[in-house]
Amino acid sequence: MLLARAEGMHYFTPEGRQMLDGASGLWCVNAGHGRREIVEAVSAAISELDYAPPFKIGHPYAFAAADALKAVLPADFNNIFFVTSGSEAAETALKIARAYHVARGTPERVWLVGRERGYHGVNFGGISVGGIPHNRAAFGPLLQEVEHLRHTHDPARNAFSRGQPENGAEFADDLLRIIGAHGAETIAAVIVEPMAGSTGVLPPPKGYLERLRHICSEHGILLIFDEVITGFGRLGAPFAAQRFDVAPDMIAMAKGMTNGVIPMGGVAVRSHVHDALMQGPIGAIELMHGYTYSGHPAACAALIATLQIYASDHLFERARGLETYWEEAVHMLRQAPNVVDVRNIGLVGGIELKPLEGRPGARGSDVYRRAFDGGLLVRVTGDTIAMSPPLIISREQIDEIVEKLGNAIAESSAELV
Ligand SMILES: Cc1ncc(COP(=O)(O)O)c(C=O)c1O
């Protein structure tokens, strides 16, 4: 499968075949493909300043990018640590969490709590707190002081929910089990995706994130939202934190940050996290962490131009406005053969298919391939097809996604039994 060119809502194969992008590339191209403004901003920035070292030295693009980002972040997120990917963002947030507790004189707070079915990229910290066993299998011992909350998937009660499922707020109480086992005074942070994306689209049950926030606050545990997928309008608000009105202590981000044009990630932190780390003598290194390409001028320019497009085209509001239409459309796939669940929130949809006997994932892969051959790019994890189109999508194109995916599922079901 090859892609050679992209424009607007479409990719084109090397032979010139047009593909509707139902996945925003890989959850990143939220403003649609080929945005000249971003390309031109990147080109102008690196013509002026190709590179500047990020250790001890700053440059105007990094500050302008941080200011522009702060304008769309929830209140009290005043500082950003720039990195170059979502995996680095997750890793950085985990390191900041531990360093925060060291700085506050509670170095025994080392445990990191993730969640089953969570995805936080592919670095060692991320796969340790991540909850996808396959991603860990080949890599030997990982971080040891790690626990996992139970996942929030509950098809028996919540199948075919529209938006946030009604049942499952109490799954957050699983944190009390972990606190009971280790003592809150040993736990540094909880990291979750507000909506689990890569594991197959799991919107949070109503009240779940609120409860998690409450338990973390009561016990002095930092709450990290990994918003690598949910950030930048995917859920019809700048961040899921705003959509769900739950304020974490840190937000990890990447993907939609630059519309996918230039690799970039970041960790936004609230004042108390930042300030705790800034107590050392002037000139000392506050956090022994950073990457050669942190805050690269090209990435900063891309971020600024991307945020301008999101604002001028009102794309976050647009996503919110399309949500009901999207929901109606994706739930029509309930009628397709072998569909056992449909989940949606924002401009995200998940279609879970009945696994083939003894061959988990085979039906999902087959549908994915047939959709590709039929001119639609989606994403597959196991037997769940995930859709997350650019926020510029039209209603007709939403219908087209549903039609093409419906055809792929029907063809696959006719052949694979
Ligand atoms: C929630 C989440 N965190 C982290 C990552 C890793 O990002 P990257 O692939 O840029 O390292 C992803 C990627 O899909 C993600 O969905």
What characteristics describe this protein?
single chain, 417 residues, 7-stranded mixed β-sheet, 4-stranded mixed β-sheet, 14 helices, binds pyridoxal-5'-phosphate
Describe the protein's architecture and organization.
The chain is α/β, with parallel strands linked by helices and 417 residues long. It contains 14 helices and 15 strands. It has helices at residues 24-27, 36-48, 60-70, 86-103, 124-129, 155-158, 174-182, 208-218, 240-243, 271-277, 297-312, 315-331, 362-373, 395-415, and strands at 5-7, 10-12, 18-21, 77-83, 111-115, 146-149, 187-192, 222-226, 250-253, 265-270, 339-345, 348-353, 376-377, 379-381, 384-387. The chain has a 7-stranded mixed beta sheet with strand order 4-10-9-8-7-5-6, sandwiched between helices. Strands 1-2-3-13 form a 4-stranded mixed beta sheet. Helix 9 (240-243) links the parallel strand 8 and strand 9 (250-253). It is globular. It starts with a strand and ends with a helix. The model has no long low-confidence stretch (mean pLDDT 97). Pyridoxal-5'-phosphate binds next to helix 4.
